[in-house]
Each structure stands twice: as structure tokens, then as C-alpha cells.
């Protein structure tokens, strides 16, 4: 009897589960159809080689890569790889723990010190990603008595991090300092006020108006926060990011950034600033407290990158020259390029389907680029976001420009 009952119960539970999963599928399928019909379906191309300027796809296609965040070309650097291998043998594959239990090794502390010294800050805290750093920052020290003022085009991780905190939220118009000042005046009764912005806006390659933000912060006694993921290591005279670009080193109160782009491209993020803030984050920041420590090979590779860029501007100078070469040649050819002389070079197309078609035809020309469209960018502002690397040669740049011209004429983007 028990056996029959158990079989019936198992059958019933399976039927209920399948029914609920069927309902879920019914809800999802229409959404997927809408995405496909709009021409914005994101198909992942599979790479079968290391991340470098010349890559090989799983289907055997060889291409020049012009869309990686590998700004300094260090993702496949031999010295960086060697450092990771040494750490793998010496410290293991991973920690199987969060930092405060048994997940902190000497190399974690050493990397945090190197990052703090690079930015000339008091201390640094490492995270699994900058997304985690943004998720763990605002709710840790902002209360319902505080206010946060955020640029409307800030990165999704900043937006999500802000949603988690209890502070009163103000969103000012993109890079509009008049609107920011109005919001600062509206929030005068708050205990703390934090102005939050990307240093470089990744979809447009535009730079936040930092000098004016700092001026307003001083005038209204506000704090400043900058996410510098698309600036750290290569932007500014010494590669120290947005404040370096504006000759304002040491001016930003809190900087968040990533190890997953220019600084080796592996993984990881961080917050750097006053020691008291970092101590509080280590006590209360949820992504830090409840996420495994960065694996030793990742820590070691990032540490090696910090050594390579701290006392040399060779790579960032090469990146600057490559950026100027690409931007100038593309504009001469008749393309509209967005951005403020940054290695992010958005080639504006407009129509989403056309942008995707353009990117597909570029791979036929041996150039790997991706079309960006809604919801990643606003509707009718689709683009090919080209990203220049210090590892590109001048011949690589010219080959990419020639491919753009060929496809651009074919699709009647340029004459």
C-alpha cells in the first residue's frame, strides 16, 4: 500500500512541477519572439583562442578583434600569464571561502595596497567584480537621512546598487550640471549627499564633466563617487583615470573600478578611498561578506599588471595614438563617431537591424565587432561600438577602417 501511495505522490508532484514549468515557458516564449522579431537577438559568438587582437572563432573564422575591453592588450600578456601560473602552483585554484572566514591570503592584501597606492588613496577593498563593488557600496553607508544624485545614463550596476540603499534618490539629466545643481538645492536637508557618476560612459565614450561636479560638490558640501571602469589604467596622462584626465588627481572621494578590463581582463573589482569607509565595507558590504575570495591566479595576474603600468606610460601612449588614428580616418571616410577622444569609438548606425547586419558583414571582412541596440542603448541609436587596444598595430587599424568603408558603402551608410 505504501509503495502505491508513494508512486502516486511522486507522480502528482511531478505533474505539478511540470505544470508550473509549462506556465513559466508560456510566459517566456512571447518575450523571446518579440526580441527575435525586433532584430535585437543577441547571439554569442564562441571564441576558441585566447583574448587577443587576432582571435579564432569556434567555427574556424580568424578575425581582428575590435570590441574587447582589452585596452592595454594585457589579457594575453606573457608576464601576466606567468604570474598567474606561479600563483596557481603556490596558492591553489581557489579559497573555497569568503574573505573574513579563511579566504584572505597575503596576495589579496598586497594587491589592495598596490591599488590604493596607484590611486593615492588610503585603502582598497577587493570584490568579485565591479558590479559587486557597486552593489555593495551605497547601502552600506547611506541611510534614509541621506540623498544620492545619479546621472541618468549611469551603468546598470550603479543603478542597481542605488536601488538597494534607503537614501532619497535623485536622477539628474545626463551630464547636465544645471539640473545637478537644482537637485543639490532640492536635497539641502539631507545628512549626506553623494553625487554618483560614471567616469566614462561606456556606450558613448563620453567623459563626465568632473571639474564642474567637483565645483558643485564643494559648493553644496556633497561627496563624489566615480565608477572608473572604462578609464583606470589607460585614461589620463598617467593612466589613473578620469581625475587624471582633468588634472584633478586625488579629488574624488570614492572610486570604484574593475580588474576585468585594462588591468589584465580576468575578473574582479574594487572600491578605493578613505580607510574608515573601507573598514566599514569590510564589516557590512554584503557582496564582500557573502562572495568567495578572488582566486589566487586572478589576484596575481592583476598584481602583475599593476607593476607593469604603475611606472610606465608606454602602453597608454600607444593606445592614444591608435585611438586618434582610427577616429580621424573614420571621420574622414564619412562615419559619425561618438565620444570624447576615448578608445571607445561608437560608429553610429541608428537602426537596430542595420547595425546587426553591419556587424555580420564585418566578420566576413575579418573584423570582429558587435552591434549594440536597445535596451543596451536608446531606441534608434544603434551602433557598432569599436574598442581600440594598445595591442593593435597601425596596419590593424587601417584594415578595420577599410572594412568599415567597404561595408558602409555596401549598406549605403556612407557614400
Automatic annotation (TrEMBL):
UniProt EC number: 2.3.1.29
Domain of life of the organism encoding this protein: Eukaryota
Database matches in SUPFAM superfamilies: PLP-dependent transferases
Organism phylogeny: Eukaryota, Metazoa, Ecdysozoa, Arthropoda, Hexapoda
GO biological process, one term: L-threonine catabolic process
GO cellular component, as recorded: mitochondrion
Chain ranges of the Aminotransferase class I/classII large domain: 63-404
Keywords: Acyltransferase, Ligase, Pyridoxal phosphate, Transferase
Pfam families: Aminotran_1_2
Protein family (similarity comment): Belongs to the class-II pyridoxal-phosphate-dependent aminotransferase family.
Classification via InterPro entries: 2am3keto_CoA_ligase, Aminotrans_II_pyridoxalP_BS, Aminotransferase_I/II_large, AON_synthase_class-II, PyrdxlP-dep_Trfase, PyrdxlP-dep_Trfase_major, PyrdxlP-dep_Trfase_small
Entry protein name: 2-amino-3-ketobutyrate coenzyme A ligase, mitochondrial
Reactions catalysed: glycine + acetyl-CoA = (2S)-2-amino-3-oxobutanoate + CoA
Organism: Apis mellifera
Cofactor: pyridoxal 5'-phosphate
GO molecular function: glycine C-acetyltransferase activity; ligase activity; pyridoxal phosphate binding
Entry coiled-coil feature ranges: none
Amino acid at each position: 500500500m505504501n509503495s502505491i501511495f508513494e508512486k502516486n505522490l511522486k507522480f502528482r508532484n511531478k505533474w505539478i512541477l511540470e505544470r508550473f514549468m509549462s506556465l513559466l515557458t508560456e510566459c517566456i516564449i512571447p518575450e523571446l519572439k518579440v526580441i527575435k522579431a525586433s532584430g535585437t537577438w543577441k547571439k554569442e559568438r564562441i571564441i576558441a583562442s585566447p583574448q587577443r587582437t587576432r582571435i579564432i572563432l569556434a567555427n574556424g573564422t580568424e578575425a581582428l578583434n575590435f570590441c574587447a575591453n582589452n585596452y592595454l592588450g594585457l589579457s594575453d600578456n606573457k608576464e601576466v600569464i606567468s604570474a598567474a601560473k606561479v600563483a596557481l602552483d603556490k596558492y591553489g585554484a581557489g579559497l573555497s571561502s569568503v574573505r573574513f572566514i579563511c579566504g584572505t591570503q597575503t596576495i589579496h592584501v598586497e594587491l589592495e595596497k598596490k591599488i590604493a597606492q596607484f590611486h593615492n588613496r588610503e585603502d582598497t577593498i577587493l570584490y568579485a567584480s565591479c558590479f559587486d563593488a557597486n552593489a555593495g557600496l551605497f547601502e552600506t553607508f547611506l541611510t534614509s537621512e541621506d540623498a544620492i544624485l545619479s546621472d541618468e545614463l549611469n551603468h546598470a550596476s550603479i543603478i542597481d546598487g542605488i536601488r538597494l540603499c534607503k537614501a532619497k534618490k535623485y536622477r539628474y539629466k545626463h551630464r547636465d550640471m544645471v539640473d545637478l545643481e537644482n537637485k543639490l538645492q532640492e536635497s539641502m536637508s539631507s545628512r549626506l549627499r553623494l553625487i554618483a557618476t560614471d567616469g566614462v560612459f561606456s556606450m558613448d565614450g563620453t567623459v563626465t564633466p568632473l571639474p564642474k561636479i567637483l565645483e558643485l560638490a564643494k559648493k553644496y558640501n556633497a561627496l563624489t563617487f566615480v565608477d572608473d571602469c572604462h578609464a583606470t589604467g589607460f585614461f589620463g596622462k598617467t593612466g589613473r583615470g578620469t581625475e587624471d584626465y582633468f588634472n584633478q588627481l586625488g579629488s574624488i572621494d570614492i572610486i570604484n573600478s574593475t580588474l576585468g578590463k585594462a588591468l589584465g581582463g580576468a575578473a574582479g573589482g574594487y572600491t578605493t578611498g578613505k580607510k574608515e569607509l573601507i573598514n566599514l565595507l569590510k564589516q557590512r558590504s554584503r557582496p564582500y561578506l557573502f562572495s568567495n575570495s578572488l582566486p589566487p591566479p586572478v589576484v596575481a595576474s592583476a598584481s602583475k599588471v599593476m607593476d607593469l603600468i604603475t611606472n610606465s606610460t608606454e602602453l597608454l601612449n600607444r593606445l592614444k595614438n591608435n585611438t586618434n588614428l582610427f577616429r580621424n580616418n573614420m571621420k574622414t571616410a564619412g562615419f559619425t563617431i561618438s565620444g570624447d577622444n576615448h578608445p571607445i569609438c561608437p560608429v553610429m548606425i541608428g537602426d537596430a537591424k542595420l547595425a546587426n547586419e553591419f556587424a555580420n558583414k564585418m566578420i566576413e571582412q575579418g573584423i570582429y565587432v558587435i552591434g549594440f541596440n536597445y535596451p543596451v542603448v536608446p531606441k534608434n541609436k544603434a551602433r557598432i561600438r569599436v574598442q581600440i587596444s594598445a595591442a593593435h598595430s597601425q596596419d590593424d587599424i587601417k584594415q578595420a577602417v577599410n572594412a568599415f568603408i567597404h561595408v558602409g558603402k555596401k549598406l549605403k551608410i556612407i557614400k
